[in-house]
Amino acid sequence: MQTLGRLQVSLGGQRLRLPRMRSGEILVWLALHGPSTREQLVNALWDGSAERRHGEHFRVAARQLRCALAAHPAVDFNPLPFEQGVYQLSARLTVALDCTLARWALRSGDPADLRRALEAYGGPFLPQQEAEWVQARRAEVAGDTLAAALALGEWAQTSDPELALWAYGRAAALEPLHEGAQRGLLRAHRALGEHAAAARAYAHYAQRLRDEVGDEPGFSLAQV
User: Fold this and answer.
1) What is the pLDDT of residue 20?
2) Same domain (yes/no): 160, 196
3) What's the mean pLDDT when you consider all of the chain?
4) Has the keyword Transcription regulation been applied to this entry (predicted)?
């Protein structure tokens, strides 16, 4: 399931069209948090609102999600059972989420996993949704992805400067004022003999630092 940059759900290799964003949000919530009561879901999706209309909106969104999943030819079971007061995704559904790749990669420490997580990051988590739980997860995913980029850059800086340049570039794109990302980016440029590019990157970083926080870099290009 693609949750970074936009929500896109595929089932059996076939893209699934969800009738409304709330249906997708329910799907992502359950995939991340597991079985949940109606109250937990409404509280998460509508930031604790107790308004009756939100309960009605939830019921419609949940029913439409179930119908959308059940319409797939391979689904001959109830994909969203409601049992003993909780909603959950069927155990027969295997859900893969791109938003968990960076944290998994950081735990494994495998450069291939780190690279896969960076390649999967197509933008913020569920950018069209602004519920509190979405914003919190968005910040976590961005932080994990930044850490994965820095870890890959550090691993590659001596053995593969081109990969280091790509990784530190991803880190700098996520957090333009991050000094570690900028230092790594400059080191990679210089390791590749790209001294003019390093000078341009340093000048761009210094100018952005002045414009946004009124500060100067804590290091010179010669100190990288």
Assistant:
1) 85
2) yes
3) 94
4) yes
- Domain extent for 59: 9-87
Average pLDDT over residues 96-105: 97
Q: Is 65 exposed, middle or buried (0-12, 13-18, 19+ CB in 10 A)?
A: buried
> Tens of pLDDT along 155-181?
999 999 999 999 999 999 999 999 999
pTM of the model: 0.92
What's at 191, amino acid-wise?
Answer: A
Inside any domain, residue 95: no
Tokens of 72: 């797939």
